[in-house]
Amino acid sequence: MTALTTPARPDDDTSPRPIPWRRMTGVTWRQHRYALAAVAVLLGGLAGWLWIAGTSVHHDYAAVTACRPASAPACQDLATTFNGTWNAMSIPSVLLQLLPALIGAFVGAPLLARELETGTFRFAWTQGFGRWRWALAKLVPLAVVLAAATCAFGALVSWCYQPFLAPGNQELGIYGNTPFAVVFSLREVTFPAWTVATFAIGALAGMLIRRVVPAIVATLAVYAGLAVVAAAFLREHYLTPLVSSDTNVPGTAWIIGQWWTKDGRFAFAGNPPDSLLNACSFPQGPGGKGGGIGGPGGPPSSANPFAQCLAPHGYAPWTSFQPATRFWPFQWIEGGWLLVLAALLIAVTIWLVHRRAA
Question: Cβ contacts of residue 267 below 8 Å, gap of 6+?
Answer without folding.
Answer: 259, 260, 261, 315
